[in-house]
Amino acid sequence: MTDTATLVRGPSSRMVRSDEARGIFQVSRRAFVDTGVMEREYEAVFDRCWLYLGHESELPKPGDFVTRTVARRNLLFTRDAKGVLHALFNTCPHRGAVVCREAKGNAKVFQCFYHGWVFGCDGQLKGQPGDERYSAGHKDSGAGNLVPVPRFDVYAGFCFVNFDADAVSLPEYLAGAKEILDLIASQGETGMAIVEGAQQYAIRANWKLLAENSVDGYHAATAHASYLDYLKNMVGGLVPIALSGNSYDLGNGHAVLEYKAPWGRPIAQWVPMFGEQGKAEMEAIKARLVQRLGEEKATRVSAFNHNLLIFPNLVINDVMALTVRTFYPVAPGQMMVNGWALAPKDESDWQRKFRLFNFLEFLGPGGFATPDDVEALESCQIGFANLGSAGWSDISKGMGQAQPSYDDELQMRVFWQRWDQLVNGDAR
Length: 428
Description:
The protein is built from twelve helices and 21 strands. The chain is of the alpha+beta class. It has two domains: 51-166, Rieske Iron-sulfur Protein (3-layer Sandwich); 175-423, Naphthalene 1,2-dioxygenase Alpha Subunit, Chain A, domain 1 (Alpha-Beta Complex), CATH 3.90.380.10. Strands 13, 14, 15, 16, 17, 18, 19 and 20 form an eight-stranded antiparallel sheet that branches. The chain has a four-stranded antiparallel sheet with strand order 6-5-4-7, with no helix packed on it. The model is unreliable at 1-12 (pLDDT under 50).
């Protein structure tokens, strides 16, 4: 192992190598096990990239707040009395104590328990015990206000922060991912909202393995064979279970799989399990989508699944349910995962029931998919102990193809190329 102070960067230490002529793309397994690499990632990636904080629907009313850890920082996400959203560092400017110690709620002000300083939901200092002992201009100077995160912005309801004040704008950073976020946001006629509750769990594997896995169509037939067998019974027994589609480079390390699959989707894809009531409701939803979005866009929204990776660690799986997931390294071989269900605000109780059933059945920690994936990722991490003898992972599938398939590995190469640029200091 090495620490970040001694991590050597440059051509000789490159951890990503690509040979276009031979169609070979490889990643050094050192990237998954080295403490120095992880610390370099926090410095070059998590401290400089736009990171998902939450969804605007989580704070529907003035005074609403949530606290959330983003890249090892404790943040306070608020909506002030005027309805404006804020991202603030959750630490008192006086002596550093955590100001808000609740996970979520509604408050007119926040009071630090240590010395009693009081702050508004916009971070402004409202009061100080013993304020007569401070200079006349202290309160108005701004020195006592909660510190805002350097950059905060919202796109299609998704709220992001950036700890680099000089970072590019969020729209520029998102690049082609904006189109997919627009498709997702258009599912609800009156908007989208995070469903109450969240999933949080740890995986004994490097965080980049989950970034790969989340846009990996290649493993479905083997790792999720039991779910595909289950689907055969759900859609008619002998009906082949086939997936078809493509993968796309969206720029700046972002990528998406866009594909068709046989499972039911409560947005507008009916399966026999949904019954006749569901069939009528799906047809009505599709008709309204066509009226609102046009035939082509409505078909992309309703008939196509999207596994979207926004670099470095936001995954939106628009599949049999809609899940938003982030994951951060706590050690080279361990990550913490947070997941939320996203849904149209206006969907019926019937839709919501099946959406949450699908969310838990396949995507939840106890569902069909996630335990399979966790076992696979932890198995990879164990395999990386053979670093000296088997030091490289192959990510070459689909190289040289004019249009990569959903089960090729273009999307992973896109991620790794951007990671390599940032970690090796070639790009901001």
